[in-house]
Design goal:
By secondary structure, this protein is of the alpha/beta class. The chain contains nine helices and eleven strands. The chain starts with 8 loop residues before the first strand and ends with a strand. It binds uridine-5'-diphosphate (UDP). GO terms for molecular function: ATP binding; UMP kinase activity.
Amino acid sequence: MSVEAKYKRVVLKLSGEALSGGSGFGINPDKMKAIAKELKEVHDLGVQIAIVVGGGNIWRGHTGEEMGMERAQADYMGMLATIMNALGLQDVLENIGVPTRVQTAIEMREVAEPYIRRKAERHLEKDRVVIFAGGTGNPYFSTDTAAALRAAEIDADVILMAKNGVDGVYSADPQKDASAEKYSDLTHLDIISKGLQVMDTTASSLSMDNDIPLVVFDLNQPGNIRRVVLGEEIGTTIRGEE
Ligand code: UDP
């Protein structure tokens, strides 16, 4: 390791939207390749990377619910969407020589391994990027919650919350309110009590209860994943109470 990374084991939360390249829908191959290239740079630092991938670029449970579908059924569709994204991400990473394993929270043995915590840890120790797909495997949850859950389970040093075009947590929506201020440090309790838009409250509570730090940063600036991993203070860091 030529440069010292701040974190040894990270969970990166990639929303489905991040893979859509701005359109919000579907998979943009160029965007996906660009993310893979950035991940390779971080992998080359010797950092162990687990990725929790979302599915909102293909399907969200509440879209189905709005259409009159049963919520659980619509959520299972969302979980399947995350698996499609995971397979795409695996492909681009392996194409540039990064070894990966996909583990799914819903069994799909023909295409990926089932989620087995100890096996995931073993892959990470062997420098394989592990992509966690299928969220938590349960309806009524989100992939943000899956990120907090997996981070706790594999004892990750940090959750990297990649945002699209927002470089941290603000006091108000910076696109609507010119007086909105960016926070550099917050606590999990601040997020919950101030109702700040970072992750849903289930995910925030889980991160708080298990004392998992979170860094919120802008994925759209090339090189940012590496910057965060090296400890540059470019986004907002969220920790437990002192
Ligand atoms: N989902 C779920 N349980 C989980 C994770 C995800 O039911 O543990 C469903 C839910 O319907 C959600 C969809 O999968 O809307 C896509 O996940 P998410 O919205 O978290 O993706 P992102 O917004 O990160 O792209």
